[in-house]
Design goal:
This protein has 191 residues and is mostly helical. It is 81% helix and 0% strand. The protein has six helices and no strands. The protein binds MU-OXO-diiron (FEO). MU-OXO-diiron binds next to helix 2, helix 3 and helix 4.
Amino acid sequence: MPSYSLICKNILIMLDPKVEKILIEQMAKEAASSALYLSMHSWLEMKGLEGCSTFMFAQAEEERTHMLKLMKYINDSGGHAIIPGVKQPKHSFKNVKEVFQLVLESEMDISSSIHNLVDVCTKLKDYTTLHFLQWYVAEQHEEEKLSRTILDKIEIIGLEGNGLYLFDKEMGSMQVQTEMKSQDAAGAGAA
Ligand code: FEO
């Protein structure tokens, strides 16, 4: 008699192995992004930049939730979400501008891999995963926009003299806005 797990596997398998593999690779990217942002948080905190460091901590947590969301989807779809190992991230930065330039680069890289996932699922006619990925497409659009807005603020305010203090203060208030956005999203989800 087949085991319960085998029966479940036969009933539940929906994910194409190719889609499962690249979803797991995406989990690794989200985990690496979370580790990089946590490393940035630590460097910024060490420099006494409270607004920027709090902002990066929230971003690191957000990336971790992106990884967990993928994990849940893979397992719920009959796959096996293997937890990725994470390389030690960069831990030292030239200045605050470099930190946020690297954030934008990281977000652009993640957007590109999400778009690749969408391409693969479209070719395989995996409409369920395509639907799931729509959230990531919209999220990446928001995150890239946010990164560009921050770099614009750096250009406008400047980081010399009092500029760094003002920018850090601005990032502290942006953190409040991001938290409000998360609360709105949670409220919408609960409705
Ligand atoms: Fe989850 Fe911003 O990539």
